[in-house]
C-alpha cells in the first residue's frame, strides 16, 4: 500500500511540474490501435509481399480485398462462411477459449463468426430449391384436400335439447 501511495504522490508531483507528460503517456498507451489499422492497398509486388509478411501469410495465398473504397486497404481477403464452432474443439490452440493460434489473421467480419453468433457449421443437407419444393408440395396438398372435402363437412353429432316437459315453464326466478 505504501508503494502505491508513493507512486501516486510521484505522479502528482510530475503532473504539477509538467502537465503535458500525462497527456503524452495516455497517447503512447493507446498507440496499439494504429498497429491494427490496415495500410493502403498494395500497388507493387514489393508492397504485396510486405503486406503478406505483415499478416503472416505466404505471398501466394495473400489476396487483398478489392480497392472499392470500403477501407479494407491491404487487409487479406480470407475465406469465410463457417463460424468458430465449426473448428475442431480438441485441437491444441494457443488461445483455446477463442479457438485461435498466435499470429492467426482475423477475418474482416470476425464479429459475425464468433461463438456467440449463429452460423451454419456445415453445408445444408439439401439444396434450397428442394426445401422450397417440399414446402410448396405440403401447402398444395393441404389445399387440395381442403377443397376436395369441402362438400363433406363433418359436425359433432348433437341431439335436441331435452327439457322436463314440452311447452311448460320449468324454472322460475320468484322468491319462495
UniProtKB/TrEMBL annotation:
Listed Pfam families: NDUF_B8 (PF05821)
Q: Does the keyword Membrane apply?
A: yes
Q: Reply yes or no: does the keyword Nucleotidyltransferase apply.
A: no
User: Which Gene Ontology cellular-component terms appear in the entry?
Assistant: mitochondrion
Family matches, as InterPro entries: NDUFB8 (IPR008699)
Which keywords belong to this entry?
A: Membrane, Transmembrane, Transmembrane helix
Q: Which spans are transmembrane here?
A: 131-149
Please report the name of this protein according to its UniProt entry. Answer: NADH dehydrogenase [ubiquinone] 1 beta subcomplex subunit 8, mitochondrial
Source species: Stomoxys calcitrans
Amino acid at each position: 500500500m505504501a508503494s502505491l501511495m508513493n507512486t501516486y504522490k510521484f505522479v502528482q508531483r510530475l503532473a504539477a511540474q509538467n502537465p503535458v507528460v500525462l497527456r503524452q503517456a495516455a497517447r503512447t498507451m493507446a498507440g496499439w490501435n494504429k498497429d491494427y489499422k490496415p495500410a493502403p492497398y498494395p500497388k507493387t509486388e514489393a508492397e504485396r509481399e510486405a503486406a503478406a509478411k505483415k499478416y503472416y501469410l505466404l505471398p501466394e495465398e495473400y489476396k487483398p480485398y478489392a480497392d472499392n473504397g470500403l477501407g479494407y486497404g491491404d487487409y487479406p481477403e480470407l475465406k469465410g462462411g463457417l463460424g468458430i464452432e465449426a473448428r475442431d474443439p480438441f485441437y491444441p490452440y494457443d488461445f483455446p477459449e477463442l479457438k485461435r493460434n498466435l499470429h492467426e489473421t482475423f477475418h474482416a467480419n470476425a464479429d459475425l463468426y464468433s461463438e456467440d453468433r449463429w452460423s451454419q457449421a456445415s453445408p445444408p443437407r439439401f439444396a434450397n430449391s428442394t426445401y422450397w419444393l417440399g414446402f410448396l408440395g405440403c401447402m398444395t396438398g393441404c389445399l387440395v384436400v381442403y377443397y376436395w372435402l369441402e362438400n363433406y363437412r363433418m359436425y359433432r353429432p348433437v341431439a335436441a335439447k331435452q327439457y322436463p316437459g314440452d311447452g311448460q315453464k320449468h324454472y322460475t326466478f320468484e322468491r319462495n
